[in-house]
């Protein structure tokens, strides 16, 4: 199922939503919107397949796969998780590989689709799908995509605004940190694997974060990734002396209920499957105050 939103600017979309609630639909579009809303209400049949939504961001078509919550949302609304694939990846493969929608059926999960234009470690000409790596890069094309998708999902579903999360792998993990830096007011927690925030972290609003890193990562050095753990610890004022550890997972309590979680494993650049389950449980504990 596809739906295309014309979004000349984020502010234009917000004004449109505030003034009329949603764009004016034809009869067919109204039927699709009803199907969308039915899916978001936890209809078990509708939730089997994802919804494909397209957004026109300054003349560029951007797409996302949206899995409505398969289980009924709580009274406060459903949690919302945005997932960002690695460089060269796709939203479809990320949904198949990460399966956040299956690990957390009460949540609405949005697998975002990157586009070419960003140079990567293994893609020097930027011909593969990817995400901006710094604020301001490429005119913030991917931040604008996130803004439009967030506004669109919130307009079409009952979302808990205090439980919006971002999760990314590799280049997508780095972009999750860019969003933390630029949109931290709206984000309750972050999970980044094999691509970290680095120097962005000290400038971020304090938010709980889970960092996943492999000791044998051939693309992003383990040393550089664990340096982000140190920066996050300072920002969140966590106490490693009070940390709890189980296997590769370490949980450090921080100021005002914040949490630093790490999954430091002996592997490489992958996002380990067990770490995905840990990430979901980590998100379940987080919310904006």
Q: Would you mind describing this structure in some detail?
A:
- With 289 residues, the chain is α/β, with parallel strands linked by helices.
- The chain has a single domain, classed as Alpha/Beta hydrolase fold, catalytic domain (Rossmann fold), CATH 3.40.50.1820.
- 32% of the residues lie in helices and 25% in strands.
- It is built from eight helices and eleven strands.
- It has an eleven-stranded mixed beta sheet, sandwiched between helices.
- Helix 6 links the parallel strand 6 and strand 7.
- Helix 1 packs parallel to helix 5.
- It starts with a strand and ends in a 5-residue tail after the last helix.
């Amino acid at each position: 199922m596809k739906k295309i939103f014309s979004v000349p600017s984020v502010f234009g979309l917000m004004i449109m939503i505030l003034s009329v609630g949603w764009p004016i639909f034809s009869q067919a579009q109204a039927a699709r919107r009803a199907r969308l809303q039915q899916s978001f209400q936890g209809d078990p049949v509708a939730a089997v397949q994802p919804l494909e939504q397209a957004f026109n961001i300054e003349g560029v078509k951007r797409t996302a796969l949206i899995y409505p919550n398969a289980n009924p949302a709580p009274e406060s609304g459903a949690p919302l998780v945005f997932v960002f694939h690695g460089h060269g990846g796709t939203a479809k493969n990320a949904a198949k590989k990460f399966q956040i929608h299956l690990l957390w059926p009460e949540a609405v999960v949005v697998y975002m689709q990157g586009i070419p234009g960003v140079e990567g470690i293994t893609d020097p000409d930027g011909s593969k799908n990817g995400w901006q790596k710094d604020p301001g890069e490429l005119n913030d094309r991917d931040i604008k995509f996130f803004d439009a998708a967030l506004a669109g999902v919130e307009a079409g579903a009952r979302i808990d605004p205090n439980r919006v999360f971002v999760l990314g792998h590799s280049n997508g993990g780095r972009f999750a940190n860019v969003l933390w830096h630029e949109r931290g007011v709206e984000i309750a927690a972050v999970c980044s694997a094999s691509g970290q925030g680095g120097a962005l972290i000290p400038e971020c609003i304090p938010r709980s974060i889970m960092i996943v890193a492999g000791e044998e990562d051939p693309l992003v050095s383990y040393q550089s990734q664990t340096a982000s753990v140190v920066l996050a610890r300072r920002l969140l004022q966590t106490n490693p002396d009070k940390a709890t550890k189980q296997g590769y997972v370490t949980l450090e309590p921080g100021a005002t209920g914040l949490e630093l979680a790490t999954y430091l494993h002996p592997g490489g650049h992958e996002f380990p499957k067990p770490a995905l389950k840990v990430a979901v449980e980590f998100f379940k504990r987080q919310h904006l105050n």
